[in-house]
Amino acid sequence: xxxxxxxxxxxxxxxxxxxxxxxxxxxxxxxxxxxxxxxxxxxxxxxxxxxxxxxxxxxxxxxxxxxxxxxxxxxxxxxxxxxxxxxxxxxxxxxxxxxxxxxxxxxxxxxxxxxxxxxxxxxxxxxxxxxxxxxxxxxxxxxxxxxxxxxxxxxxxxxxxxxxxxxxxxxxxxxxxxxxxxxxxxxxxxxxxxxxxxxxxxxxxxxxxxxxxxxxxxxxxxxxxxxxxxxxxxxxxxxxxxxxxxxxxxxxxxxxxxxxxxxxxxxxxxxxxxxxxxxxxxxxxxxxxxxxxxxxxxxxxxxxxxxxxxxxxxxxxxxxxxxxxxxxxxxxxxxxxxxxxxxxxxxxxxxxxxxxxxxxxxxxxxxxxxxxxxxxxxxxxxxxxxxxxxxxxxxxxxxxxxxxxxxxxxxxxxxxxxxxxxxxxxxxxxxxxxxxxxxxxxxxxxxxxxxxxxxxxxxxxxxxxxxxxxxxxxxxxxxxxxxxxxxxxxxxxxxxxxxxxxxxxxxxxxxxxxxxxxxxxxxxxxxxxxxxxxxxxxxxxxxxxxxxxxxxxxxxxxxxxxxxxxxxxxxxxxxxxxxxxxxxxxxxxxxxxxxxxxxxxxxxxxxxxxxxxxxxxxxxxxxxxxxxxxxxxxxxxxxxxxxxxxxxxxxxxxxxxxxxxxxxxxxxxxxxx
Length: 673
Hints:
This protein is mainly α. It has 23 helices and seven strands. The strands form two sheets. It has a five-stranded mixed β-sheet, with helices on both faces. Helix 6 links the parallel strand 6 and strand 7 (182-186). Pfam families: KDZ. Residues 49-72 are annotated as: Disordered.
């Protein structure tokens, strides 16, 4: 048995430190973990893993060629090389530097971090009192979860930087008692920040057991709490927590009535996606055995540590030398152009004067560029100089080097664009100042789009040139042409997009020595089939999980019904019996809502009966209101939505659109284009 949970922090749910704290007032069903438990975890983490200030600044070490060759490796317990994890960490660090998360000078609570189940219902929450997301907050939430789970239940955990949390757990032994019951993945809408080998291992669409869960339930929770942002900042410390607890409780109660609708919507989406990917598998024309073998080979090849890294660094030095040569040639052309303007008798006097003024600085730039080229080429070894001459004499290798550099640049530009769109994709905060910031971000992103498109067009032209050289037998044997970028999906950065794959561009491709490249690298149908196969695996997992959740729904209700009836029969206290009957009425209302919304949801055999008799349900089935709860009309009667069946599909679509966060960005992109 396993459960899927995700965690995220909202840095708009702050609390001002001005005025101190009000008298304690705790909610009877509080979701917040006690402050003492969080501080205990912080102390434990700081003791096991000293901070940089405590450990002191590390001394720089001189690395030899052997050190460079051995420095990249896979750490114990992980499947991704150290260099890839370092790249993911740098990517998130760079993104967070541009975002002011919270000031501890003005706020004693800088954020709210909440752990949710895959049905978007809050489980536990903590107050963040640091400027960033300390890992001890996540450890406190996960440990509290495990304390409330049976010892045989496994947890599949989704987090924006799940790879880094996994690394810390393996390196420092955090959550060690639960390590054999805990797996990590990254949330889908943050996967673009991670390196491609990291996505192969930690992306939920590539990980076994995660189904179609996206790990972004917290964003929908922050939307429901957006109306409390302004008030929570100035309210008392404990009043704020009480209000958040009340909202959490309300969201959980409301979600109970929507579980049937949630299951039905998930079943529809899963069924449609499964049909689509099965058709893709059929059309690719490759057996499933071959696809799985090639997928395993791809993961193994693309997640291995960098081999002979000193040679790759040599190639990078050669590429740098070529780039410096291009810069020098550009500076030389500029100087030549200025000199022609000066000696041209048809030039205007003011134009000649301007050219003379620019010529001196242009010559200085040229001299510096020539000095950099000379210095760089003098540092090249014998093999690197030979590579430089080969590149200069090979049009194919020259275009390949240019395409490799261009694709890296496109990826970085797209990542930067997504960082800016991060605020728009999560724009659930409706304050006027936030709307102005969103407008400025939108304008900034819009200005960058043409530049990215031009880079992609240049890259596609290089791909066409390389394909032409291969067909004309002017390229090395068994060379593979790079995949062109699809301009229609350029800005999506989906996990299956070709922008991540350096087919025909990798360093290893230069060293094949005439061997035939693997199918996952060279065959379009195999790549298409692998994507469809992994998606189908997730759909089948989702189907099995939905069936289990549908069964759990009925088993839970049946047990709850038996318990409530037994309690009513055995209890003679009038006040307690009244509360128990009220609970029984709510269960009946809940079942009436579920039986209408669960139409079409597959159900397992041999399940216990729901519990209520036909007569007990008759008085509730005739009149109810669907939409997150049950409302009583006058004199105990209920209103029945007679148009519900006709509008069921419309309700599903409307509910789906309201929950899919990335629709905001898509609508924005469509309106701009």
